[in-house]
Amino acid sequence: MTASGVGRATLRVALAGSPNTGKSTVFNFLTGLSQHVGNWPGKTVERKTGTCQRGDTDFFFVDLPGSYSLTANSLEEEIARDYIIQEQPDVVAVVVDASSLERNLYLVCELLELGVPLVVVLNMMDIAGGQGLQVDAEALESALGVPVVPTVAARGEGVSELLDAVQAVAFGEARALVSPPPTSAAVQALVAGLDDMIPPDLAIPYPRRWALVKLLEGDRAIVGAIKKALSTNGWRGVNPFLRLHDDAILEIAGARYEWVAQTSQQVAHRLGKERVSLGERADRILTHPVGGVLAFLGVVAAIFWAMFSLGTPLQERLDEWLVQGSAERLESALEGAPDRLVSLLADGVIGGAGLVLTFVPILAILFLALALLEDLGYMARAAFVMDRFMHLIGLRGKSFLPLFLGFGCNVPAILGSRIVESRSARLTTILVAPLMPCAARMVVVALFTSAFFGGAAALVSWSMVTVNLVVLALVALLLSRFVFRGEETGFVMELPRYHAPNWRTVLMATWQRVRAFVVLAGTAILAVSLVVWVLSNFPGDNIEDSILGVVGRGLEPVGGLVGLDWQMIVALMTSFVAKENTIATLGVVLGVGEGDVNLSTQLTQVMVPAAALAFIAVQMLFIPCVASVAAIRRETQSWRWTGFAIGYMMGISFAVGVIIYQVARLMGWGV
Amino acid sequence: MIDERSEQYLKTIGQMEEEGEQATTSSLARSLGISMPSVTEMLQRLSGKGLVHHRRRGPVSLTKEGQRLANSLIRRHRLWEAFLVRFLGFSWEEVHEEACRLEHATSSGLEERLADFLRGLDTCPHGHAIPAKAGLRRAEPAVPLSKFPAPGPVRVARIQDETAQFLRRLTRLDISPGRVLQTEGVSSADGSVRVRLDGRSHQVPAEVAEQIMVQPAQTEETPADRTVAVSELRPNQVGIITDLSGGRSFMARLLALGCSPGTEVKVVHNSGHGPLIVSVRGTRIALGRGEAERLRVKRVDI
Q1: Which of A218, A263, A348, B236 has the fewest CB atoms inside 10 Å of its own CB, making it the most exposed?
Q2: Looking at the partner chain, which of A254, A489, A494 has a beta carbon nearest the beta carbon of B250?
Q3: For residues B212 and A303, what is the distance between their CA atoms, to the nearest angstrom?
Q4: Are B285 and A68 inside 8 Å of each other by CB?
C-alpha cells in the first residue's frame, strides 16, 4: 500500500478470473474512460489498467488476462499468475460467474492456497437467478473465509460494495479466517519428498511450498525455473521422481475439485428444473457442421455489407470534406508560397494523414461488429465451426474471421488476430494476413485487367485472387509445419453461455481498437508519405529525375525479369504507402491525368500483356503497405518477424512474378 | 560367492516354487535345456553347498539359504526389467536378456536403491510380481492358456517365456499382461487354442499357449464397463472420466476446465469427424478430435 500525499492511499487491485465471467464488465464499470490499454512488456497480450477514486482512496486496477487456473498453460495464465505473485498487489479481486460456480471455484481454490489477500466478486447473479439457481453469498463467505460481494456488473450493481470490501481487506479490517482447502495425505507425502530433495535456499521467485506443488503438477514455467536454479546433479535427482509421479496432477486437481463440489453444494441450490436455454437451441444450428458454416458465412457477409455500404459512403464523405477540403483550404491560404511547400503540406501531409482518417468509418464498423459478436458469445461458435477447415492449413478456427476481413483491408486482419489464443497460430495468422487480396489491391487489379484483357478481365482477376489464396494456404502450412513445429497445445476451448451484449463493454472495446489503429497507422503512414514525397520530388522537377526515379531505373535490370520498366517499379515502390497509390503514381509517371480511360490506353501502349499479368501478381503479393507493416510490428512486438514478413513476401512476389511473366511470354502474350 | 550357472539354477527352481510347481530333475532339465546327468551333477554340488535339498530322482527344493539367494536374484531381475521398460524406453522383448546380465552384477545396495526408486511398481513387464526383500511369495494362482477349460473369458496374468523371440510373437498377437481374451475352444488335433481378441479370432499354437498364464476374468466385459474415448460417444451419451493421457499441458488444460477423473461428461455434439462439444460441470467445452480421443470415460447408461 502506498500513501501518495497526506491522507490519500492508493490501492493496487488485480482483477483476476476465468474468461467469460464478466471481468471486463466489472473493470469497465470501475474504471470507465480512465482505462489505458497497452501490452504486457515484451508480450502480445493486452494489458488494461485504470483508476477510480472514492473518498480518500485511489484505486489502481489491473485487469489480468483471463485464466482458468494458476498453472501456466498459456501465456495469458502465466502473465496473470506472475503478476499476482511477483508484483504483489494489495488485493486480488477474483470474478466468479455465479451460474457456473463449480467451474469457477477452481481458480478461487488455487488463490486460497496461495494465500493472497482476496475478495470474491460473485458476478452474474441475475443470470444465475434466471436459470433457477440460488447462490447464497453469505454462505460462500463463511465457507471461504474471505469477503464475497454479489454483483450484476452489467447493471453496475454491487460495484460500490466491491470497493468497500477491497478497502476492508487492504486495510486489514476484513475477517482473516481464510480456510485454505486441504491437500490429501498422499500429495503431502510427495511434497515432503520433494522438499527433502531440493535445497532449502533455492532461488526462485515463487513461494516455496506452492512452487513444489506446481512442480508436481508439471507447470512448465516452474519446472523451468527450478531446473535452472538447481545444479545439474540436483535436477537429475528430482526429475525421475517427477516422472514416476507424473499423475500426481490428477490427485492434486481431484482434491481441489472435491473441495469445489462440497463448497458448491453448500452454497448453491437449484430451484426448479433446468430448462433448455435458448442458447442451447441456437447452438444446435450454429455448431452444426453445415448449418454452422452457413450461419457463419452469413454473419461475415453481413459484416462486409455493413462495412462497405455504410462505411464507404462515410469514407467518401470524409475524403471530400476533410482531405480534399483541407487541401484546398490550405492551398488558398498559402497562396504565393513556394510550390514545393504547398505540395509538401497538401500532398504529403494532408494526403497521407487524410488517407488514414478515411479508413476510420469502415474500421469502426468492423471493430464494433467483432466486439459485439465476442460479447454475445458467438465468436467461440464461429471458431468451432471453422476449425475443421482451418486445421487443414495449419491454423485454428478463430483465424478465419480476421483473415476474412483481410478482403477489406489487411490492417484490421492483422490487428484482429489477437482473438487467436494459440501463440503459434496467432503468429501464423499475422504473417499470412497480408496475403489476403485487400480492396485497395483489387482496385489496381481491376484497372489493369480491364485495360489488357477486355472481356476476360473478370476471369483474370479471379485467377489472381486464387493465386494469392493458394500462396496463403501454402505459406500457412509451411510455417506451421516447419517453423512452429510442436507448439500446438491442442484445441480445447470453452463455449461461453450466450448473453445480451453489454453496450458499455462493446463500445469501450471498439473505441480502444479504433484509437489504436489511428495512432499506429497514422504515424506510420504519415511518416512514410513524407518520405516518399521527398524521394519523388527531389532533386529534379519531374519524377524521372527524382531519387525514386533514379532508384527505379537502377532496378530496371531486375525488373526486366518480370517485364517491368522503371515506371512500373516506381509505382510499386510508392504502393508501399498505400496500394491505391499505384494508380496515382502511374498517372504521374506516364504523364496522364487520373482519368481511367487515358491511363488505360497509356498502359497498353507502355506494357505487354505478359508484363501486365506479372505486375498484377507482384502487386498482389508484394510487401504489405506501411500500415500493415506497422500493424505486424505492433502485434508481433518483434522487428525480426516484421522483417521476415517483408522479406518473404518480397521473395514470393518476385518469384511468382518471374514465373508468370516468363510463362506468359512463352504462351505468346509477350507481344 | 557362487558362479553364474549356479545362480541360474537357483533362480529357475525359485520361479517354479513361485508357481507352486514341484521342481524335479527332469523338469529342470527341460526348462534349462540341459541334459539330465548335468542337472544331477549341478544339483549335487548345490546340495553340498547347502542351497538345495535334493534326493536322487526325487523332488528338488531350496533351503532357506537357497531361497534367500534365489529371491534376491529374481528380485533384481524383475526390478531391472521394470526399470528398463519404464524409464529407459526398452520394450518388453528386449529387457529379459539385459536383466539376466544385470542381475548378476547387482549388489544388494544397488538393489535396495532400485527398489526404492521404483516404489509403486510391483510387477515386471511380463506380469510377474516383484518380490519383497523378505521373500518370494506364491504367485496368484493361474493356469497356462493351454490348460484353461474353454470356452470363457480369461485375463492374461503373466508370461513364462521371456525370450525376445517368444515375446515378439505375442506382440504380434497383441497379447500382454492384463489383456482380456475370450477363449473359444481347444483344437483336439494340435492342442492350439482359439481365442477372440478385439473382435478378431486367433489360433494360438499349443507351445505358445503353454507359456501364457491366465486367470478367469471376473465377469464378461459389458459395453458399459469398458472404457472408451469420448470421441466414440454419441450425442447425449454420458460417461464418467477414467483417465486422461497425452502430456502434462494437455491434462492441465482439461483439468482446469473441470475434466477430472470421476467427473461426468455429456456429449452435446459429435458429428464423427472434426471437433466435438461436451458438457462438463455445467460448462460447454469444444474439444478437437485428437484431444477427445485422449480423454477416456466409462459409459454410463442413464
Answers
A1: B236
A2: A489
A3: 67
A4: no
Residues whose CB is less than 8 angstroms from the CB of residue B235 and which lie 6 or more positions away in sequence, other chains included: B267, B268, B269, B270
Cβ-proximal residues to A193 (8 Å cutoff; 6+ apart), any chain: A241
Query: Which amino acid, residue A568?
Result: M
A199 DSSP assignment: -
pTM of the full predicted structure? 0.67
What DSSP state is assigned to residue A407? T
Q: What is the dihedral of CA A492, A498, A503, A504, to 10 degrees?
A: -50
Contacts of A568 (CB under 8 A, 6+ apart): A559, A607, A611, A615
Exposure letters B51-68 (e unless 16+ CB within 10 A, then b): bbebeeeeebebeeebbb
The tens digit of pLDDT for each residue in B62-115 reads 888 888 888 888 999 999 999 998 888 888 888 888 998 898 888 989 998 888
Distance from CA of A246 to the nearest CA of B (A): 8
Whether residue A379 is predicted with pLDDT greater than 60 in this model: the reply is: yes
Q: What does the pLDDT look like over A442-463, one tens digit per residue?
A: 777 877 887 787 777 777 887 8
A176 pLDDT band, cuts 50/70/90, is low
Specify the pLDDT at position A596: 47
**Greatest mean pLDDT range, A307-321, A379-393, B184-198, B252-266:** B252-266
Beta carbons of A69 and B256 less than 8 Å apart = yes
Contacts of A383 in chain B (CB under 8 A): 286
- In the prediction, which pLDDT does A613 show? 83
Q: 10 Å Cβ neighbour count for A170?
A: 21
Q: How many residues does chain A have?
A: 671
* Cβ pair A490:B288 closer than 8 A: yes
Q: B167, B152, B289: which is closest to B216 by C-alpha?
A: B152
Q: Check residue A486 and give its pLDDT.
A: 53
For residue A491, the tally of other CB atoms under 10 A from its CB is 24
Instruction: Judge whether A624 and A632 are in contact, CB under 8 Å.
Output: yes
Instruction: Find cell 504502393 and name the residue.
Output: A575
DSSP characters over A613-656:
HHHHHHHHHSPPPHHHHHHHHHHHT-HHHHHHHHHHHHHHHHHH
From the list A103, A219, A490, the residue facing B258 with the nearest CB is: A103
Q: How far apart are the first and last CA of chain B?
A: 65
User: With contact defined as beta carbons under 8 Å apart, do A624 and A585 qualify?
Assistant: no
> Residue A101, Cα to own-chain centre: how many angstroms?
29
For residue B137, count CB atoms less than 10 angstroms from its CB and return exposed for 0-12, middle for 13-18, buried for 19 or more. exposed
Name the residue of chain A whose CA is nearest to B248's CA.
A218
Cell of A338: 513556394
Coil, strand or helix: which one is A461?
A: helix
Mean pLDDT throughout A354-369? 77
Give the pLDDT score at A60. Answer: 92
CA-CA distance, A517 to B233, in Å (whole number)? 46
Q: In sequence order, which residues have a C-beta less than 8 Å from that of residue A23 and are 6 or more positions away?
A: A15, A16, A17, A63, A66, A95, A123
Q: State whether A250 and B244 contact (CB < 8 Å).
A: yes
Nearest to A249 by CA among A71, A400, A111: A71
**String of DSSP letters for A557-598:** HHHHHHT--HHHHHHHHHTTT-TTHHHHHHHHHHT--S-HHH
**A106–B291 CB contact, under 8 Å:** no
Which portions of chain B are predicted below pLDDT 50?
223-224
For the stretch A242-253, pLDDT in tens is 877 777 888 888
Give the span between the Cα atoms of A34 and B128, in whole angstroms: 69
